[in-house]
Specification:
CATH class of the largest domain: Alpha Beta
Distance between the termini: 90 Å
Structural class: alpha/beta
Number of helices: 8
CATH topology of the largest domain: Rossmann fold
Number of strands: 9
CATH architecture of the largest domain: 3-Layer(aba) Sandwich
Oligomer: single chain
Amino acid sequence: MGSPTNQHSTEPPRAILFAVSAYSLSKRAFTRLEAAVAAAASGPVRLIRLEETGPSLIDALDMMRAEGHRFIRVQPLGVPFPETLMNWLPGVMADWRVRGQNADTQLELGPDPATDADALARFVASPLSTPARSVERVKPRLGKPGWNAPPDFEFHLLVCTGARCMIHGAASFPEMLREELKAAGVFDRCLTTRSGCIYPCNQGPVLVLYPHGHWYRLPDQASTRRFVREVLVKGGMAEDLRFHTARAVRAHPITNLETLS
């Protein structure tokens, strides 16, 4: 009689890193997604947002490797999932593997969820089985009255929270900026707006100052503090932090921001 077949695989289980692309995702919706991915996968799973908040793709891979995972599948999640990000992800994953000792970890990228026609059809059909809600007694309106006029401000700060800035540490940047603005006493003079990718670049974290037209790379608290105090408070330029200026401003240089304040 032959020896029994070994039914236990020697290959470590693959961990799955689900990456969702959705700019307007509440904590409640994220929690529901976390529960869904945990129920759908049999092995270790983690869910991250590629934009806005939370650990970046790079941070999540670092954490999963630190937990001992050496086979990780990155699975895009969302319908539709941006094609630009599908094209961008492989290079970022390959870049992570050449950092430090990461070459000992195998990565693979799952497909765009929308490429499975049957799964997409089930996704579309699912909500149709739930009763709809009538709007017969809803008061007609296109928004709140307070939305008619923008707030007053001196400085408009556009803070990029796109996927490309996220891998450079942009997730913690908005809160850091908020703290520095308050500490310097200029918080109420600023209108701070989180945005998606302002333009695909490798300069993150990126802040764009309008109406002045200057783009700044602020990678840490020290540079953020300098920007707030030198540029917003004192009216300077912080030239070493600035990497781009709008064409109109280049054509008519301004030496001191106080002239526009």
